Structure formats: C-alpha cells, structure tokens
Prior knowledge:
The protein is 79% helix and 0% strand. The mean pLDDT is 87. It is mainly alpha-helical.
Amino acid sequence: xxxxxxxxxxxxxxxxxxxxxxxxxxxxxxxxxxxxxxxxxxxxxxxxxxxxxxxxxxxxxxxxxxxxxxxxxxxxxxxxxxxxxxxxxxxxxxxxxxxxxxxxxxxxxxxxxxxxxxxxxxxxxxxxxxxxxxxxxxxxxxxxxxxxxxxxxxxxxxxxxxxxxxxxxxx
Length: 171
C-alpha cells in the first residue's frame, strides 16, 4: 500500500472518507428524524403519491413507486414517532462518534465499533425478515467501517503505548 509525502496510506484516506460519509449519513438521519416529528403520516402519504404519480402514469406496475406507496399508506402516528426517535438517536450518536474518531479520541473507536455491530445485527435481522438490496449494501458498508475502524484503533493504540523517547542530557 503506497504512502504519500505526509505518511498517509490509501487505506488511511479511505478510512477518513468512509467516516465522513458515515457522519453525513448521521446528519441526514437527524434531518429525517426532525421531519418525521414535524410531518404527519397523512402528509407523508400525500407526498409519496405526488412523487410517484408521474411514474405510475407511465408504468402502473413500477416496483419502486408501488413499494413507496405501500409503505407510506401503512404509516401510523406511533410508527412515525418510533421512526423519528430512532433516526434522531441513531444520527446523533453517529455524528458524535464520527467526530470523536476524526479527532483521534481513542475512547471513541471501541464505541463506534460496538454501535455499528449492534446495528449490523439489527440490519441482518431486517434482511432476513424483508429482503432489501439497499439494506445489504448499507450493512456491507457498516461491516467495512467496523473492520477499518478496528484497524485504525489498533494502530493508534500501539502508537500511544510506545514509550516516548527520553531527551539526552548534555553534560
């Protein structure tokens, strides 16, 4: 793996980019959670019908459009509240952990790994219940983030455990 003049490898850069993407995902989850608190299930259904009407006029059997309409037609107030709380907590924790890892806070690495492992298990359960390629891709990305975060944690921990060089006395 090549290094550039600042000593970072392609894998180091991939780690930072992946973390930034995870952080942006957290921001989107926060926005989604806030929107779910502000928008009623009826308004969500109306928006879904508006967004899919053109596609369904062209192809009444469009899988994505029909799936979106099906999901939004079954929303209840409690399901929307659960979704909002889930997105807000998930997004907030993700943003805090990504920020801490990017700031090289050693405590954040194991927390990030544990947090993602819990969601990987949940996502695997969801894949078994309702198959989704999108969820499979998200889970694969999360598994990659866990692996690369573990790698970076081991590197940073080893670097912090090395004794610092003692200054030579000039006598």
